[in-house]
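Retro notes, item 3 of 5
We never archived the inputs for the flavin mononucleotide complex last cycle. Fixing that now. Sequence and ligand:
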Amino acid sequence: MDPFYDPSRSYDDNDADGPFGAFAAPPTAPADGDRSAPRHRFLGLPVREPFGIPAGPLVNARFCAAAFAHGFDLCVYKTVRTRAHPAHPLPNIVPVHVDGDLTLEAARHPVRAGGAFAHPLSISNSFGVPSRDPDRWQPDMAAAVRAAGPGQVLIGAFQATRGAGDLVADHVRAARLVAETGAPVLELNLSCPNEGASDLLCFDAELVRRIVFAITDAVDLPLLIKIAHFAEDAALRRLVAMTGRLVAGYAAINTIPATLVDDAGRPALPGRTTSGVCGAGIRWAGLDMTRRLTRLRDELSLDYAIVGVGGVASADDYRAYRDAGADAVMSATGAMWNPGLAAEVRAGAAGSAGSAG
Ligand SMILES: Cc1cc2nc3c(=O)[nH]c(=O)nc-3n(C[C@H](O)[C@H](O)[C@H](O)COP(=O)(O)O)c2cc1C
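Structure as it came back at the time:
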């Protein structure tokens, strides 16, 4: 199946001409013949099924509208910034050849990438979090908000730009700009490995607390924070203890960084030695974080939401995340190559509701 984001084209070309594949046309059958009231709630909002697409592949309102039409009920508009920021040059997406799980140990060694996309699919996404200027993305994000149907939610994702003045102030400005579009939920990306920063922001709990405090003080909307896989339990506990009463929830995970090489051992992404891996090989890590966040929520008597992300490519994967404690589940790689995934998840959920009843 052709992916709805075309890896062979530049980011700007996808933005101008996409979406592609099945997302280029309305669904042949409505993703949902069911017109009953949404059965679920996410952050207090009614949702039909708490499943969707995380930040990244939905690069503009057309992509978001297509995703909603195909039954993805939670759609995250691609992470934006307070200023225009260019994308890395092609290639941005390459297949990564992972045998089973991309464990933290396996990710310490070079991993082979390039060639053909094959299932079970792992890929690298290396974009550098491009953004248009707020004058361009704000009206477009507002259109994406309007594209959500009943029981569907558009989430506005953002991050700050390092080296662009006061980091906390840039975060607050970005959050305010997103809120102005009418997005009912915000998501702060603290976990991008493709920016050249040696340490991810999510690992600096004290700085995250200051940023989150400033945002939630300035903007009265539920705030999710997108975090990476934490190797250390103590570090995750510290982050949750410091932020768990401020944020509405945690979205985990982003990607696992690895050194990607081609068959000849050269960098698979010229000029970028490490890059984030997502897809089937990181499912274990998303599930692991979901379980640990669930446990911490109980232990610390908190009530944040958990958005499980990583390697979801089937209705069974969705169920595994929900069973692990996720309040919502999202798929980037899996959904890109299977635009019918939301319909499969809904059918699976309807089946299990039926058998439970
Ligand atoms: C094409 C693409 C672009 C992405 N861009 C972003 C981004 O801008 N911001 C972000 O927080 N995550 C980004 N991600 C990461 C995804 O949101 C997700 O966390 C990750 O891909 C793991 O999910 P998956 O295994 O279902 O792909 C991107 C992923 C892909 C595939």
